[in-house]
Structure formats: structure tokens, C-alpha cells
């Protein structure tokens, strides 16, 4: 069973009345893969709405199990409005170097086969079809990921309207045309903070010199925040 990897820290869900106010949109930094392609890592960072505290979260994923590497995720919130975002990111970065160094990730970042910013209005938020590598003409079969939302109750969100779960499908774009289920929610973790919806953010691939080719699908979650909707990130990983 695929273990969903959450990239969200808990915030008090609440609805803000009156005029629309700004929520928090986490910046996404794809760090890359370990040299053998067995670990994928990404970072999200930003400033909390409401408190103004800078935060940085790092997630290290064991692709074979689609679970967190022991000792991770690394979550830092600096409860000081005078602290800088750079300080938070540095504190999150330091302990990760003993797991996989940033230098190793940088040397094996892989390829961003597809990407949609949260601000992108013309892209399809539920479908992303890609060639796994930037080789022309392609030497790999193209793959497609589709995201489907469905209503699913979340504990503690009963008075906030409908909350959403998701399933992720992988589609073979060759003549075979097979469809496989990558992930389907049967419950909503509290860390998603009453999710309102989801959108595909990126597909990252790697073909290591030693090890199996792998992918990571980055998914943005819209959820209730303090001053408006928040966006944070999760990743679902697998083998190509």
C-alpha cells in the first residue's frame, strides 16, 4: 500500500470572514535523488500566515517503500517574526547532510519532465503527460499521471464544508494503454489540514548510472489556513 508522503505542518483550520485575505503558498524546491536513485528529497518553505514565522520543511523519501527515510521529515519553524527565511532553511538543511548531502542531490537532480506552478491558469491541474527524459527523438515510452478528487471526510473538519481525498493514476501512453493505480486515499491525515482540493505540480524523473529509474509526482494541496487558503506539497514516488 502506497504510503502518502505529507509535506504539511499543522495549522489551526478556520474560515476568515469579510474581505478575501492572503493565505500561505509554500515555495517548492526539488532537491533531487541519491546517486543510486533510491531516495528522493524536496523542500518547501515560506512564512506562515497569521504568525509571520518563517518555516522550512525537508522530506526524504525511500522510493522502494514510498515512505519517509528514518529521522525525517525535518520541520523547522522559527517562532520569531524577526527571524529570516534563510535562517529557517539553514536549520532544516544542516541535519539532512548526514542522510544525503545536498552536493549528492545536486549531482543527481534528475529531470523535471513536467511542471505547473500554482499560479498557472492555462495548465490542466489534473493531467500531466511527459517524456521521462529530454532525449529527442524519445527513447522512452511516454507516461501520463492523472489526479482525481473525491469527497472524503476528515477528522476535525466537520463544520468547514466538504473535504477532498484523491487518487493518482498512471497511464501507459503506448498502444497497450493500461491504467494502474498509484495511490488512493482511504482516509485523510490530520496534517493535510482540511483539504479543499489538489493539483499536479511537477513530475521529476531520474535514470541513475546504478540503480533503477525512478519518479516523483509533486502534488499541491489547497487547505484551510489562518488568513485564506494555504498551499503545501506532498510527493508520491515510484519506479519508472
From TrEMBL:
Which Pfam families does the protein's record reference? Answer: DUF2259
Give the signal sequence positions: 1-22
Query: Which InterPro entries has this protein been placed in?
Result: DUF2259_secreted (IPR018725)
Keywords, A to Z, come to: Signal
Q: Does the keyword Signal apply?
A: yes
Please, which domain of life does this record's source organism belong to? Answer: Bacteria
Know the name of this protein?
DUF2259 domain-containing protein
Organism, by scientific name, is: Aquibium pacificus
Amino acid at each position: 500500500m502506497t504510503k502518502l508522503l505529507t509535506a504539511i505542518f499543522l495549522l489551526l483550520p478556520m474560515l476568515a470572514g469579510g474581505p478575501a485575505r492572503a493565505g500561505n503558498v509554500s515555495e517548492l524546491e526539488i532537491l533531487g535523488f541519491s546517486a543510486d536513485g533510491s531516495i528522493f528529497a524536496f523542500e518547501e518553505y515560506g512564512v506562515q500566515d497569521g504568525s509571520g514565522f518563517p518555516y522550512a520543511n525537508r522530506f526524504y523519501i525511500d522510493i522502494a517503500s514510498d515512505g519517509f527515510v528514518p529521522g525525517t521529515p525535518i520541520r523547522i519553524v522559527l517562532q520569531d517574526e524577526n527571524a529570516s527565511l534563510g535562517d529557517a532553511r539553514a536549520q532544516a538543511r544542516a541535519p539532512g547532510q548526514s542522510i544525503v548531502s545536498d552536493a549528492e542531490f545536486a549531482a543527481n537532480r534528475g529531470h523535471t519532465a513536467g511542471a505547473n506552478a500554482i499560479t498557472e491558469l492555462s495548465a490542466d491541474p489534473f493531467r500531466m503527460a511527459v517524456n521521462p527524459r529530454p532525449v529527442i527523438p524519445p527513447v522512452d515510452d511516454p507516461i501520463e499521471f492523472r489526479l482525481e478528487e473525491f469527497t472524503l471526510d476528515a477528522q476535525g473538519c466537520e463544520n468547514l464544508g466538504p473535504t477532498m481525498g484523491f487518487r493518482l493514476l498512471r497511464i501507459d501512453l503506448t498502444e497497450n494503454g493500461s491504467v494502474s493505480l498509484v495511490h488512493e486515499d482511504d482516509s485523510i491525515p490530520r496534517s493535510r489540514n482540511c483539504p479543499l482540493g489538489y493539483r499536479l505540480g511537477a513530475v521529476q524523473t531520474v535514470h541513475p548510472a546504478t540503480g533503477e529509474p525512478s519518479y516523483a509526482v509533486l502534488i499541491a494541496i489547497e487547505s484551510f489556513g489562518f488568513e485564506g487558503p494555504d498551499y503545501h506539497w506532498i510527493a508520491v514516488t515510484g519506479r519508472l
